[in-house]
Amino acid sequence: MTQLKKVENMFGYKDMIFYCISAILLVEQIAMSASVGPYAVFWWLITIVFFMLPNTMVTSELGATYPEQGGIYAWVRDAFGARWGARITWLYWVNIALWVPSVFIMFSGMLSALFFPDMTLWTQISIAIFLCFLLAITSSMPLHYTKWLLLVATPLKFLIILTIGIAGINYGLTNGFANDLSFSAAMADLSSGLAYIPVIVYGCLGLELIMSESKKIISPEKNIPKAMLISGAITAFLYIFGTVGILAAVPAEEVEIVSIFAVTLKGLFGGTQTGDMLVSVLGVMTLFTFFASMIAWTLGGNAAMAEAGQEKEMPSIFGILTKKHEMPIGSAIILSSTCALMLVIYGLMAENAEELYWTLFSFGAIIFLMPYIAMHCSFLKLRQRDSSKFRPFRVPGGELSAKLIAGLCILILIVAILLFFWVPGEPIDLNYIAQVSIGLLVTLLFGEMLARKNK
Asked: What single-letter DSSP state applies at residue 428?
C-alpha cells in the first residue's frame, strides 16, 4: 500500500507529457498570438525552427543528464555557484508572481464577457485575488491530487484549441477569412510583427518546469527527453492551429486579449439556444485551463524556491514544507500574497482590464526571459566541464553544433528582451522605458539583497 501511494505521488512518462503540455500550452497565449495579426503564423514558424526546437534540445540534454531537484536553479547553481543559482530562482519566482495576476485578470475578464458584461474592474480584481489564494491552497495539496487536475486540463486544452481552430477555419472557408493569412501578406510588412516576437518566444518556454519535481519522476534519464520533445511538437502545432482559427474569424484589429475567447466563441457558435450553451461550456472549460496552467507553473516555481530556501540561499521561510507530503507551502503562501499585492498596486494605476493585463505581462515577461540566458550559458559551461559525463540525450552535431545552438538561443532571448523596450521603426517611449527599467532594477536589487542576506 505504501509503495502504491509512492507511485501515485510520482510522474510517469504519460504524466510528464501532460504536465509539460499543461505548463507550456497556454490557451491565453493563443489570444496573444492572434493579436500579432496575419503575421503570427509566419513568426511562429520562424520561432519554432530557430528557437523552440533548439531550446527544447538543450533543455532535454540538461534534464536527462542532470535530473537534480530544482531544474533551472540546479543547473545554474552547478555551473556558476550557489549565488547565481539563487539569483535565477528569484527571477524565475518573481516572474510567476507577476504573471499569475495577469492570467487571473484574463480569467475574470473572460468571465465578465461570457456571463457578467457589467462587471467592474475592481470586481474582476477581487475575483483574481480570490483565485490567487485558492492557488496557494491547491499547489500545497499532495501531488497525486494536483496531478489529476493537470491530467484533466491538458485534454481540455486540446478540445478547446481544436474546436476553435476547426470552427474558425470552417468559418473562413464559408464566409471568407477575416484576415489575409497568405505567405505573401506576411512577407509584405514583416516589421509590423517585430513587436510581438517576444510574445511568441515567451510561448515557447517552460519545458524545464517539470525538472523542479525531478525527485518524483520515474526513470528521468529515459523519460525526460522523450516527454519534452513530444510535448514541444504537440504544443507548436496547437499554437499555430488555434491562432489560425481565431484570425480566420476575427479581424486582427478587433482582437482584445482579455475578451477574445469569449468574442470568438460567441461569434462562431452563439445565436441559438444550443450554440449559446456550447459557448458557456467551452468558456467554463477555458477558465478551468487558465487556473490549471497556473498550478503547473506555481508547482515548479515554488519547488525551486523551496529548494533554495532549504539550501539557505534564500530566506528559510521559502523552504517551509508541509509535514506529510513535503509540498512547498511557505513559498506558495508568499507567492499568492505577492500576486494579490501586485493586483491591487497595478489595479490602482490601470483604467481597464486590458491595460492591467499588458502592464503585468510585459514587466513579468522581461524578468521571465532572463533566467533562460543563464540556462543556456550553464549548458555550455557544463558541457565543457563535464565532457566525459554520460549523456542519455545529446544535442546533435558535436561540440560546435552545441555552441552554435546555445548561442542562437541566447541571441534570440536578448533580442526579445530588447524588443520589449523598443521596436525598430516605432517612436521611443522614454516614460515606459524608465518605468520598466526602474522596476527591473528594484527587482534585481531586492533579489540580490535576499541572496546575500542568507550567506
From this structure: P
Residue with cell 545554474: 76
Reported as a pLDDT band with limits 50, 70 and 90, residue 4 is very low
Least confident of 206-220, 283-297, 376-390: 206-220
- Measured CA to CA, the distance from residue 166 to residue 172 in angstroms comes to 10
The pLDDT value recorded for residue 440 is: 84
Q: Is 315 helix (H, G, I), strand (E, B) or coil?
A: coil
399-423 confidence digits (pLDDT tens): 899 999 999 999 999 999 988 887 7
Would you say 245 and 169 are in contact if contact means Cβ atoms under 8 Å apart?
Answer: yes
Cβ burial of 184 (10 Å; 0-12, 13-18, 19+) is: exposed
Amino acid sitting at position 45: L
Look up the CATH number of the domain holding residue 448.
Answer: 1.20.1740.10
**Structure confidence by residue, pLDDT tens digits, 168-191:** 899 889 888 888 877 776 666 666
Domain around 97: 2-453
Q: How many other C-beta atoms can be found within 10 angstroms of the C-beta atom of residue 33?
A: 25
Compute and round to an integer the Cα radius of gyration of the chain. 21
Domain count, the chain: 1
- Residues 271, 288, 17, CA angle at the centre, nearest 5°? 120
Neighbour-count burial for 355-364, b at 16+ CB within 10 Å, e otherwise: ebbbbbbbbb
Query: One-letter amino acid identity for 339?
Result: C
